[in-house]
Specification:
Blueprint: E1 5-8, H1 12-20, E2 25-28, H2 34-40, E3 47-50, E4 59-62, E5 65-69, H3 74-79, H4 81-86, H5 88-95, H6 100-105, H7 108-113, H8 119-122, H9 164-170, E6 174-179, E7 182-187, H10 188-191, E8 210-216, E9 225-231, E10 239-250, E11 253-262, E12 269-270, H11 272-278, H12 285-296, H13 308-328
Parallel strand pairs: 1-3, 2-3
Antiparallel strand pairs: 4-5, 5-8, 6-7, 6-8, 9-10, 10-11, 11-12
The protein binds flavin-adenine dinucleotide and iron/sulfur cluster (SF4).
Flavin-adenine dinucleotide (FAD) binds next to strand 2, helix 2, helix 6, helix 7 and strand 8.
Length: 329
């Protein structure tokens, strides 16, 4: 591992100033992703600016929604009563990730910016357009059983591994940040960039920006919501497919619905085509399946990951059916 400097920032402007003083500096959250990547040589920062002591660790109610800071741990976010009551799918998504020990360390900001789990990306002896632009994408012809089926390009077919971000996408989250030029914010829809021919550019955050937190607007539909994750073992594993869903059914008709998919694209996939197909229609398994098919019509699976199509379709039908039954009780 490259030798690096370490500093602990005391306040937000100080953290931003420290980072921007050195182009090779990185923010350090819980370190559960960054330090692993430093050990393998994928990341080689000259300086780490530790943000964990910043006063960004609160969860507050705002205008019927919630605001939580970038250094809130995954454990604290999942355990918070308002999160569990108002956005149960978010608490479930966070709890479905990693392990108890990791969630105690991992932060909101770090979770949003964790890197892909593509094996070629993590192996510096291999080419990889995301790690080394222009070097190629061996996953397309190689090992890709857990890679993207939606929104990928011939330059990269990696998926985003975050469970939390899938629920945040379903509930129209807004990411707030601070730069040397002042604060800014990005809707989660705009936060992750399309892959295109620049897979190394993953987010629309300005260079040197510190994520300060996430805002969730009031969303009554989110109170009846669920996150369902399929993985290769029962715990401590990344998703091979996941769905965050919320449903408001009145007299058997879908009044409001939210749907987002995980582990199918380079970013959390908000299923707006499916939402549009469902709204105003019957809350039946047939309608749920048709809506999933409409969303997945844009999919372009690779040789070894077409299994994700029926997997996601079945998840959509199962989760929405459960929510419709709960709404009827
Ligand atoms: C074995 C294992 C299994 C896991 N399983 C899952 C899983 O199933 N689902 C899941 O969602 N996650 C999973 N994780 C990922 C884990 O949740 C992430 O490692 C974690 O969320 C990253 O958070 P962190 O605070 O440790 O980030 P760090 O490792 O500290 O940082 C990650 C990146 O974010 C940047 N960063 C951190 N904070 C900020 C900030 N405030 N502003 C700007 N940049 C910042 C860092 O510079 C770095 O680039 C797993 C991790 C491991 C090691
Ligand atoms: S899928 Fe993306 S991350 Fe994986 S090898 Fe290809 S370019 Fe690299």
């Amino acid at each position: 591992m490259r030798e690096f400097g370490y500093e602990r920032a005391a306040d937000v402007p100080g953290a931003v100033a420290l980072l921007n003083a050195d182009p090779e500096a990185r923010f350090l959250g819980g370190g559960t992703n960054l330090v692993d990547l430093m050990k393998t040589g994928v990341e080689r920062p000259a300086h780490l600016v530790d943000v964990r002591e910043l006063p960004l660790d609160t969860i507050e109610s705002v205008d019927g929604g919630l605001r939580f800071g970038a250094t809130v741990t995954n454990s604290d976010l999942a355990a918070h009563l308002d999160v569990r009551r108002q956005y149960p799918a978010l608490a479930q998504a966070v709890l479905a990730g990693a392990s108890g020990q990791l969630r105690n360390m991992a932060t909101v900001g770090g979770n949003l910016l964790q890197r892909t789990r593509c094996g070629y990306f993590a192996d510096v002896s291999q080419p990889c357009n995301k790690r080394s632009p222009g070097s190629g994408c061996p996953a397309i012809e190689g090992e890709h059983h857990n890679h993207a089926i939606l929104g990928a390009s011939s330059h990269c077919v990696a998926t985003n591994p975050s469970d939390m971000a899938v629920a945040l996408a379903a509930f129209d989250a807004v990411v707030t940040y601070e730069t040397v030029d002042g604060p800014g914010e990005l809707a989660l829809d705009d936060f992750y960039l399309p892959v295109g021919d620049t897979p190394h550019r993953e987010t629309a955050l300005p260079p040197g920006a510190l994520i300060t937190g996430v805002r969730l607007p009031a969303s009554p539909v989110a109170a009846l919501s669920r996150y369902r994750k399929v993985r290769e073992r029962a715990s401590f594993a990344f998703a091979v497919g996941s769905v965050a869903a919320a449903l408001d059914v009145r007299d058997g008709v879908v009044h409001d619905v939210r749907l987002a998919f995980g582990a199918v694209a380079s970013r959390p996939w908000r299923a707006r085509t499916a939402e549009g197909a469902l709204t105003g229609g019957p809350a039946t398994a047939e309608a749920f399946a048709e809506a999933a098919d409409a969303e997945l019509a844009a999919a372009a699976p690779l040789a070894d990951n077409a299994y994700k199509l029926p997997l996601v379709r079945n998840l959509v039908v199962a989760v929405l059916t459960e929510l419709a039954e709960e709404a009827a009780r």
